[in-house]
Amino acid sequence: MKIIFSASTFLLLAPVVVAAATTIDNSSSSRSSALLLRGGDAHTAAAAAIPRTHKSSTTILWETSKQHQPREIVEDVELQRRLQQRELKPTQKIVGGEEAEAWEYPYYVDMSWCGGMLIAPQVVMTAAHCGDFTGQTVVVGEYDKTDDSSGQQRVCTKHIIDPKYDDYSTNYDFALCYLGEPIDITSDPARVTLKLNQDATVPADGEELQVTGFGDLASGSETYPTTLREALVPYLTNAKCNDYSSYSGQITDAMMCAGFDEGGIDSCQGDSGGPIISRTDLGDGKYEDILVGVVSWGYGCALAETPGVYARVSSNIPWIQEVVCNEWDLSASSEFCSGYTPPAPTSAPVFICDNEEVIKIDLTTDSWPEETSIMLYEKDGNSSPLFEMPQYSAQNTANQHKVCLQKDTCYTFEVSDTANDGLCAEATGENCGSFSLTLNDEVIFNGDPNFGSSATHNFCTGNGTPADCAELQATYGVVLKKTTGNQCIWMSLDENGADCQICAEESSCEDESGKHWIHLKSNGTKLRPKKCAWVGKSPNGRCKKNLEDMIRTVADVCPETCGTCEKNRGKTNPDEAGKHWIHLKSDGSKLRKRTCAQVAENPNALCKKKLKDMIRTVADICPETCGK
Q1: In what order do the strands lie in the sheet with 442-446?
Q2: Which DSSP symbol is given to 511?
Q3: Catalytic residue selected from 41, 162, 166, 173
Q4: Burial, 563: exposed, middle or buried (Cβ in 10 Å; 0-12, 13-18, 19+)?
């Protein structure tokens, strides 16, 4: 199977998840370079069932949905031009290889649209991007597709993809297939043996490697051989491979490259999952093959400065051993299980905070987890986060983090998204993840996943008072209390129990200095720092705005400019002009704009309602109408 990146469109292609179709003209003498996941043998009927496969018999390329869109690696125009102008030689073979001998690769496995290799009598290794082979018949030792006696057939009864596999970057492109019955390929036991490479220093720079498969004989030619082919290609260090402008940093430690600078010889579409090996001649016609990689992806096939990319076997030995030797219990028949010790069973860890409180952060990612990060830090402005997750890796996955917190201390939680669409995969707010905070087993915050670039929440443990509450208390001398989540609300100060929005002792009538963050939209989504002088230019509209803390209005900060001081009030407080959002249901779920004149039509009921800011009642806005 092969991912194809057209240098001009960069679409990840598949025959199943269809969003759009484009027919490519093959008559041109030069073809645009393409990044291919190197599977997708188009002449098998099974290929139609596997996602992300290039069905090349009609040369139709299928674009997948957004979560399968690959990165746009080629960005500058000059590089696109050079990629588009590379020509393919019509005589290129595996590409540029030759027919293998019938005895050379007894472990090779034909998996119809991909390749694989027998690494144990009941285990086949292949590439994760090839898809799920559960229930599929594979042919071990296949050499000649026209010969029914070539190879031995088995059914893949279990199929496991490496959980670290990333469909976006094709990192950790490994999968294992469990055969229903073991298979014996040792009728000529001393001829060829295959071992897994467990040495990170192998292969050496420039070392000659052999790659095998039934893939396309030229990029996009749809000429598939019936006999197994092989090619010799030199190993390239990751540093050198990442230097090529085509790959520029995409090659990870779980990948490796092999190919010539000038191109001409390479694996190609249909070779995915197959082996690339280092062969040692032991003499007397005996060979030892070391499996160093699994055919994975690459830009085009056999192009200059775009070598083939392979999954590096030595990077993933622990996972292979865990599945084969432990989970499938095949240690007795698997050479690479020698010396493997399964992990001791452990009980679930108990999270204990010594004389502290516990915050649980639950976050479920969307389809783009690498965009999401979280931080938890003390509210006092300490620049060092108490806890930080700079990036997630698994799509649509629930994550939980537990952190010990000091008692009677206030904290700020922040979640950010680099794409400015929150925990939602689409701008419409659909296909969203979620996040919440639980303090000492009490949920204190359920966040809106469609938060844009970031969202924050302040909370305190024990008897801690949020900084904004403390500031208000110090400024106004009013008594404050905390609700669930430690949000500040006003309490009554006078003996009659009246709401105490402006009842601080000897309240100052002077405007506060400096700039203050003001919500310039009614839903609080737009902020701007402004001074009272700016408020005075349009007091009728601006004095009603809320500050960022959502507790005080602009009139509270600029009482002189807005005329809200006690000395500026008459004996009877006048009604405020304009319409105000009123909660018409006790749970605050229904809002409607009302003027004081409309309140006067039913004052007994409406005067008791809260405003949208959940601080002032309707009686605070319409004191004359409500007789307050």
Answers
A1: 398-405, 357-364, 434-439, 442-446
A2: P
A3: 173
A4: middle
Q: What is the per-residue pLDDT across 328-340, written as a single tens digit (0 to 9) for each? A: 999 888 889 988 8
CA dihedral 540, 546, 552, 555 (to 10 degrees): -10
272 flagged as catalytic: yes
Return the CATH architecture of domain 357-460: Sandwich (2.60)
Q: What's the fold here for domain 98-336?
A: Thrombin, subunit H (2.40.10)
Q: Kindly write down the DSSP assignment for every residue of 513-561, as one continuous string.
A: PS-EEEE-STTS--EEEE-HHHHTTSHHHHTTPBBTTSSSBHHHH-HHH
Q: Where does the pLDDT of residue 465 fall: very low under 50, low under 70, confident under 90, or very high at 90 and above?
A: low
Three-state DSSP class for residue 4: coil
Please tell me the least confidently modeled range out of 402-406, 528-532, 559-563: 559-563
CA distance 483 to 457: 14
Which of the residues 6, 32, 56, 272 is marked catalytic? 272
Q: Are 279 and 122 in contact (CB under 8 A)?
A: no
Which residues have CB under 8 Å from 18's CB, separation 6+?
62, 63
Residue-range domain boundaries for the chain: 20-85, 98-336, 357-460, 508-569, 580-626
**579 vs 576: CA distance, rounded Å:** 9
Looking at residue 204, the DSSP 8-state letter turns out to be P
The one-character DSSP state at 399 is E
Kindly name the residue from 129, 457, 580, 583 that is annotated as catalytic.
Answer: 129
Close Cβ partners of 515 (under 8 Å, ≥ 6 residues apart): 529, 530, 531
Q: What is the pLDDT of residue 124?
A: 97
Per residue in 470-498, pLDDT (tens digit) is 554 555 444 444 333 333 444 333 333 33
